[in-house]
Structures are given as structure tokens and as C-alpha cells.
Amino acid sequence: TVSWARGNRKNATDAEKRMWLALREKIPGTKFRRQVPIGPYYADFLCFSAKLVIEVDGGQHGEAQDYDTRRTAFLEAKGLRVIRFWNNDVLGNAEGVMTQISLSLWEREEATKSRKGEGA
Fold first, then answer.
1. 86 - beta bridge partners?
2. Residues 6+ apart with CB under 8 A from 51
3. Predicted pLDDT at 6
């Protein structure tokens, strides 16, 4: 629900706050949304135009691998690409994380260009 997503945005972890700030500063031309409902799940961050979901995972996700696997499969079936980062990577290596995200955005853009050129 919208209220659940709103609550999660207000109570974001330090890593989620850092990610949000970094996305806005380092990739300003790309629109991301936070805590986006997709079916029965929520994406931490979604760039709809690039069909890219970014997940920021804490230690609890080590114990929830089956759930994360089902969730990722659901999102990928919707045509979304999912990339995951551990909290400590976001907090300790934000530059490296942003490089990976930029690369993922570039790869999606190149794939889109390639598909558009196929029909020409």
C-alpha cells in the first residue's frame, strides 16, 4: 500500500538514505523512485525508463535468500533488471556502487539502441 511505502521512505536505513542521495547527485538525469510497489513486492529504488530495480540489502537478506530469489524472479518476469548491493558496500564504497549502477544503465541503453536498429 501507499502508506506502507511512505512509511518505509520516512524510516529509510542509513544505506538507503546514502543511496538516494548518491543517485540524485551522481546520476541527475535519471529519474529514480523509492519504495515502489510492484505486484506483491516493493522495489527499494526503481528507474522505470531503464527498467532497473536497485535493492539495498542488510544482513537480514542473508537469511531470506528464498524470498529474495522469488522476488527477483517475479520482477525479472515483469521485464525488470534487478541489481543488489549490501548496506556496507553502499556505505563504504558509494563510488563503486554508483559505477556499477551507471554501467547497468549504459548497458540497458545500448541494448535498447541495438533493438531499435534491428528493424531499420
1. 57
2. 79, 80, 81, 108
3. 56
Instruction: Look up residue 39 and give its amino acid.
Output: G
3-state secondary structure of 102: helix
Q: What is the pLDDT, as a whole number, of residue 8?
A: 58
Can you tell me the distance from the alpha carbon of 41 to that of 39, in angstroms, rounded to the nearest whole number?
6
Distance CA 31, CA 21 (A): 12
The answer to whether 95 touches 74, Cβ cutoff 8 Å, is no
- Identify whether the C-beta of residue 27 lies closer than 8 Å to the C-beta of residue 102: yes
Does pTM surpass 0.70?
A: yes
- pLDDT, tens digit, 9 for 90 and up, residues 87-114: 999 999 999 999 999 999 988 888 777 7
Rounded-to-10 torsion of CA 88, 93, 95, 101: -40
Give the closest residue to 102 by CA, choosing from 31, 23, 48, 1. 23
Q: Which residues contact 27 (CB under 8 A, 6 or more apart)?
A: 98, 101, 102, 105
**Which runs of consecutive H residues, i.e. helices, occur in the chain?**
2-10, 14-26, 65-77, 87-92, 94-118
